[in-house]
Write a structure and sequence with these properties.
Two copies of one chain form a homodimer. By secondary structure, chain A is of the alpha/beta class. The first copy, chain A, has one domain: Rossmann fold (3-Layer(aba) Sandwich). Helices cover 43% and strands 20% of the residues of chain A. In chain A, helix 2 packs across helix 3 and helix 5 runs parallel beside helix 7. The radius of gyration of chain A is 17 Å and the shape is globular. Chains A and B meet through strand 7, helix 10 and strand 11 of A and strand 7, helix 10 and strand 11 of B. Strand 11 of chain A pairs antiparallel with strand 11 of chain B.
């Protein structure tokens, strides 16, 4: 098991040669948590925010945490969202659902020709708990693809707990990442970004049309978190996986 | 681990005292597979079908398989759907999505006052694989609740592989069952029906409004099955679970 894991991490690093990951919404919990883990794995990360100064502060904090946890050579910088997208080879959208489409549309020139990873969960909260929001395009990822016709959108990292990501004392993150997308190379790139986080396994989870239920499943996980005071993730079981 | 499991199975059997499970669509793969596992656990099962004679044949086959696998005292019978619902204390709808609402509506008198478990997955298949179907009510489970105002609908057993269920040589079924519903007692009853199957754990997964994504997630699992030649299931991870 440990050797398999090492093998997967090594393979991941091959696919990731030369990759620079931009994180739109890099000052939020999910983006920051993923940035922390990628920087710990030695992957260069650019945190993006509407406010470049806030992004630079967050980048310094992430770099400090990575170093404090004993990882060498963290490469983390901060920039405004447009510059973050322009500087990166692959970009994660970890922004609030409110304004998601408008923000991405405004970055279409910087995202042109790139893989845009969408991890946004359209979820509301009512008296009886979380519930999925209706999305005209079917999902946040499909909305992103609709406003970014020049980019290739892949959905992933929806069900990974930001709390667990932020806690580097939990070395292994016990979850699979379902990766939904159209192009095999793009899916494999994003799987490699998942595999680069210890404990995490990236799995192809179908075409982009299947993004919605992965996004909305986060509502079920939040219900589980509330009932059991935990930070739930998912694993896919099955012989040979 | 094994002792915990035994404890959960024993608890499950307490909640299940006096329970008779009806399985609408009991001659289909999912209904038949679950019936096989419940009968193996000593729970009385009534298989339902449009055609009573077909249900009776299926019931004999299930009873035979249970006995052949070394379990004593299988109590399995077959009946037409209305009689199946009338004879049972809790009823599983394992019917095709096509005609789902009409069938359940026609059984409203027999299902009155009972828990109706819905495991139906509204999924289509196209050139590039499986995809979720739009459901006006949001999900099959919500559609069931809409046509059965006198019953209490709980969603569960969506993501359990019928192939694995049918294979009694795989004693343990390596999956969690997300149980979505409104009433705690009903959810606990259905969790107990999940826990009664070795290896399976029933987990509260939120209110009924969160049924849709659990149903549709089966499309992602089918995509995984095709890519990896497996029969995928899910587990929920998290400290304390």
């Amino acid at each position: 098991m440990s050797e398999e894991r090492d093998g997967r991490e090594l393979d991941a690093m091959g696919v990731l040669d030369g990759v620079v990951v931009g994180v739109l919404g890099g000052t939020g919990a999910q983006g920051r948590g993923l940035a922390l883990r990628w920087a710990s794995a030695g992957i260069p990360v650019v945190l993006g925010s509407r406010d470049a100064a806030r992004a630079e502060v967050a980048a310094k904090e992430v770099a400090h945490l990575v170093t404090a946890a004993g990882f060498d050579g963290a490469r983390v910088s901060g920039a405004d969202n447009a510059s973050c997208a322009a500087q990166s080879t692959v970009v994660l959208a970890a922004v609030p659902w409110d304004g998601h489409g408008e923000l991405l549309e405004s970055l279409a020139p910087e995202l042109e020709g790139k893989v845009l990873i969408d991890c946004v969960n359209p979820i509301g909260f009512g008296k009886t708990g979380p519930f999925p929001l209706e999305v005209a395009e079917g999902s946040a990822a499909q909305q992103a693809q609709a406003v970014l016709p020049g980019s290739r959108v892949v959905g992933a990292f929806h069900n990974v707990s930001a709390v667990v990501l932020a806690d580097l004392s939990q070395m292994e993150v016990d979850t699979d990442v379902l990766v939904v997308g159209e192009e095999r190379d793009d899916v494999e790139l994003v799987q490699a970004l998942a595999d680069a986080i210890p404990g995490v396994r990236g799995l192809f989870g179908g075409r982009l049309v299947n993004a919605g239920q992965v996004e909305k499943l986060t509502a079920n996980l939040i219900a589980i978190n509330r009932r059991h005071q935990t930070h739930a993730g998912i694993r896919i079981t099955g012989r040979g996986l």
